[in-house]
Amino acid sequence: MDATTDKDPLVQEQIYNALCYLGESEPEEILNSCDEYLRQHDKLAYPHRVIILKAMETVVKNNIALLDKSTAKEVIRDWQQAASDVLVAVGQRFINKVMEEALTKFQPGILPHYFVMQTFANLSVSNGE
């Protein structure tokens, strides 16, 4: 997975494809490996983190019926945290666009998801003056 940091888009695509391919035969193993890698590399730049997150998304979508409930729950929590972190990182430069997109998650009469609120809080802290 270290090759995700390669600047060549073809290499990045190959890593994504390899993770998805391996995820077809061993979805839980790949999801756990991706999760562990993201935890160990918490400073990984967001474009590279996105490659791994997209691969995780594809593996989950393609194998949802095969996943153990506890694995799915853990992956979803970690995935949401990682996605929130990506939005906060992007928001350090493009705060207006991130806020515009995040605000679409608010609907009258419905409590917003925990990670939407956490993302707003982290955006405010990272962009505070």
From TrEMBL:
Pfam families: HEAT_MROH2B_1st
A GO cellular component annotation in the UniProt record: cytoplasm
Superkingdom of this protein's organism: Eukaryota
Residue intervals of the MROH2B-like N-terminal HEAT-repeats domain: 19-127
Protein name: MROH1 protein
Taxonomic lineage of the native organism: Eukaryota, Metazoa, Chordata, Craniata, Vertebrata
